[in-house]
Design goal:
mainly alpha, two-stranded antiparallel sheet, about 55% helix, about 5% strand, RNase H type-1 domain-containing protein, OGFr, opioid growth factor receptor activity, RNaseH_sf, RNA-DNA hybrid ribonuclease activity
Amino acid sequence: MHCRGHQKGRDEIPKGNRRADQAAKAAAKPPPPAEDQAKVLICKQEPQSSMPNYEFYMNLRKFEPHGEFIEIILHKWQDDYELLELNHDYIQWLFPTRTQGRNFYSTPLNPQETRLMVNTSEVQQRLRRAYNMMLKFFGVKIVGEEEDKEITEVERAENFASRFENLTINPHNNLRITRILHSLGELGAEEYQVPLVRFFLKEILIKNRLPRMKKSAMNFFIPAVRDSQDRQDLLFFFILNHIGKRKKKFFTNSVQQNLSTGILLKLSGNNKIRFPYFTKKV
């Protein structure tokens, strides 16, 4: 008769003894090479890239979450207006700024990344292609760019009627336009800012289109323009074409007096006046 520890059959060996044997065998194995240990550590603690926006624009990574490479977007998305409308994650990658957007998988621009993107021709080419794609989505097109003019104007595209209707139905696109304007200024393409803002001001104030864009144009589009003189001129255009119609109702009482004084100084030839403008964060 055998004691239980010596009985035949593996299942009858006490579990505690088996675990001790397994631990002993594991301890007897040589440790993995230091190189392999480093690889495991990297996999577990892989640091985030310091320049994700640059990598995205160089077609080295997809936007997040569940995104695509930028070349796929520029080739296959440009005529898919439904996709461009319903997907809310690509715009923060396509037009990065220094502030965090609503897509928390995106990363704000940092100074080093911004300088690199401004000075990389491949990035600049893709930025302009992305801008053209979004203009088409908004019902707008660039004119005269192929003529290498200093100022590139924009005008209504052939599809403007349906696209303007979409802008009215989906006013969240006003936020997208604001982001695009800021991004163009950050990434060295500020020459596109004024023509786009002026275009929308004319559509809103003169042609009486896009009624749900008026406040965004005043509060966000104009302040997004980097050059102070350009901002002043755009604000002056807005004032002249709006105050007479609404009798200053659009402006708060605290701002009305400053605006009125600014108009008089402007009309009197004082070009040094700087009009107040709103800088609400979006």
